[in-house]
Amino acid sequence: MKKIFVLFLLVLFSANAWAWDIRTNPEERKTRREEEIKKMQEEFRWWPTDAQPAPVKDDKKSGWWWWPKAPGSAKPWGNRGYIYLYKVIFDYRQEELPPPQPKELRPSLLIKKIIKNVKIYFDFDKSDLRQDHISILNDAVKTIKRNPQADILVTGNCDVRGPEAYNLKLGRRRAEAVKNFMLEKGIGPERIRIVSRGKLDAVAPITDLVGMQKDRNAQFMIAEVEEVMLPYEVKPTGVVSIGENKYFTEEKEEVESSLKVDTKEYTVQKGDTLWKIAEKQLGRSHRWKYLYELNKDRIKNPDKLKPGTKILIPIE
């Protein structure tokens, strides 16, 4: 199963780190920035560590104080002092690359600042943009153009129905729909990155129509990011681990499209079967199992429908 690990990257605080010097020209700033990233990656090689004690959060400064006294098995110990946190989306291009080797350096994204978090919902088995998406996406384009340092990371998601391989492709099509909209509005392709999660993050059962609508989405962040190369399967321990696919930062703005969920009532006729009803009402006869799960409280025996029984048909 493919996974995206979202991690905290610990960086030793320094008054000179990430400094902005208005006296240097853009080319010099770029060179210095590349040197800083390289240095940061070198400093990160020691992590994870089991040195103790673990970092302690400083709520006033939004950082952590770390001064381990007992070394662990990892060598060297790592940095000491006051540290602050960056979020990292680890191995974000795993779909495009061969399976990783242990400790292999993989493209990862260092998230420095999230400007806007957006989520739009899709109809069942569809990747077409809905009309209610357009104004939201147009506003996102304006935000991107106002923030030339920001990029876009789009993640496509699906509900629990269907094979995993199919849903990975469907999730990618949903992410690509957002990407294509941005391209048509003049956003450069180098500023857009997409990932498909398929149904890996789906949580709603098939009886929860609203929940499944929420699972069918493309969510994207507009953020200042930096691509870095980090070793495969870096997993911090203790307080800095936040699990997979979790965005543990405060977004400046969150936007969602409207939920689109509706049902109609159908009265079972003489000679009806769930197979026939699914083919006529949902366009696919094999979806009779879905109808049964949705109407278990109304159907006693799925093989013998009682005429006059009223069942719910989802409008998707």
Instruction: Give, in order, the helices and strands.
Output: EHEEEEHEHEHEEEHHE
List unreliable stretches of 5+ residues. Answer: 1-23, 234-251
Distance between the termini: 29 Å
Instruction: Estimate what percentage of residues fall within beta strands.
Output: 25-35%
Morphology = elongated
Query: What is the fold-level CATH name, i.e. the topology of the largest domain?
Result: 60s Ribosomal Protein L30, Chain: A
- Count, helices: 6
Structural domain count: 2
**Gyration radius over CA:** 24 Å
Class by SSE composition: alpha+beta
DSSP E strands, number: 11
Please summarize the sheet with the most strands: 9 strands, mixed
CATH superfamily of the largest domain: OmpA-like domain
Instruction: Report the CATH C-level class of the largest domain.
Output: Alpha Beta
CATH level-two architecture of the largest domain: 2-Layer Sandwich
Helix content, binned percent: 10-25%
Determine the mean pLDDT.
75
Description:
With 316 residues, the protein is of the alpha+beta class. The protein contains 6 helices and 11 strands. The protein folds into 2 domains: 252 residues, 60s Ribosomal Protein L30, Chain: A (2-Layer Sandwich), CATH 3.30.1330.60; 54 residues, LysM domain (Membrane-bound Lytic Murein Transglycosylase D, Chain A), CATH 3.10.350. 25% of the residues lie in helices and 27% in strands. β6, α3 and β7 form a beta-alpha-beta unit. α5 packs across α6. The chain starts with a strand and ends with a strand. The N terminus is likely disordered.
